[in-house]
Amino acid sequence: MAASAEQELGTQLNLKLDQNGLITAVTVDADTHQVLMVAFMNPAALEQTLKTRKCTYWSRSRQKFWVKGEESGNTQQVESVHIDCDQDAVIVKVRQRGAACHNGFASCFYREVVADEKGGLSLRIVAEPLMDPKQMYRK
Amino acid sequence: MAASAEQELGTQLNLKLDQNGLITAVTVDADTHQVLMVAFMNPAALEQTLKTRKCTYWSRSRQKFWVKGEESGNTQQVESVHIDCDQDAVIVKVRQRGAACHNGFASCFYREVVADEKGGLSLRIVAEPLMDPKQMYRK
Questions:
Q1: Under the phi-then-psi rule, with left for phi > 0, alpha for psi from -120 to 50, and beta for the rest, what region is A6?
Q2: Which of residues 58-97 of B touch A (CB under 8 A)?
């Protein structure tokens, strides 16, 4: 198989990292498929995620591993991980405990982008918080 | 509202662009919520997506707008766009015509990442192609 065909259709893991050494991780609810959040992983975070079954990201702001829920208790138990054709993004299917978003919403995507009559874009909140964020980080 | 609260909980669009001027776009099937693909948008691509209702990305490899399906015919009719808490990622809910993946699969995420007994990671194909990719680009 040619290198590009192997990358896209083969069975060998060969991550295509971005300029920061990361891939995109899209976390979805294993049952409903609702997208919960989008974050980043480096190769070690992906390995740890699969080994521990606790979803582990690379925090760009803190420059360290980020085991989801280690502060808030809102952990993500990993069911499976899927990778895309060019191997620069994964979907992580999880069982989410509590809210995935630090603002207390089930998903970080609680706002819709809408266009007004003049074509300008604004946001509309389309979900209710699941938890009080003030309570989430006071444990 | 403080600036960070407005960014995260307000109704004003204020995209947090990465070092390439882009946000992440996760495209999902509007009915099943299956994740179809992950790509990138710049602010103009997001505006065009909402204006035309045809999902439009920014191609990093070709450095130009990429109206999904303009070559293959496998277009994405946009139902709604949702944005995350820090405004650096969107979910685009679409009606997909044909296969989303250029390899002929319904979704680009047709491989699962699995660990072997020694902890090494490899890939397993877990979906069947929907279309013959050779036919998709011969129109």
A1: alpha
A2: 80-85, 88-91
Residues β-bridged to residue B45 = none
Mind listing the pLDDT tens digit for each residue in B23-46?
Answer: 999 999 999 999 999 999 999 999
Res B64: pLDDT: 97
As to burial, measured by CB atoms within 10 angstroms (0-12 exposed, 13-18 middle, 19+ buried), residue A139 is exposed
CA dist B60 → A44, B41, B65 (Å): 25, 9, 9
Q: What is the rounded radius of gyration, in angstroms, for the C-alpha atoms of chain B?
A: 17
pLDDT digits 0-9 by tens, A69-82? 998 999 999 999 99
Residue of B nearest to A7 (CA): B123
Q: What spatial distance separates the first Cα and last Cα of chain A, rounded to whole Å?
A: 53
Tell me whether B111 touches chain A (CB under 8 Å). Answer: yes
Instruction: Quote the distance between the C-alpha of residue A13 and its chain's center.
Output: 19
Distances from the Cα of A112 to the Cα of A45, A55, B22, B133, angstroms: 30, 26, 19, 34
Considering the entire predicted model, what is its pTM?
A: 0.95
- Tokens 């003030």 sit on residue: A134
Amino acid, res. B126:
V
Cβ atoms of B81 and B49 closer than 8 Å: yes
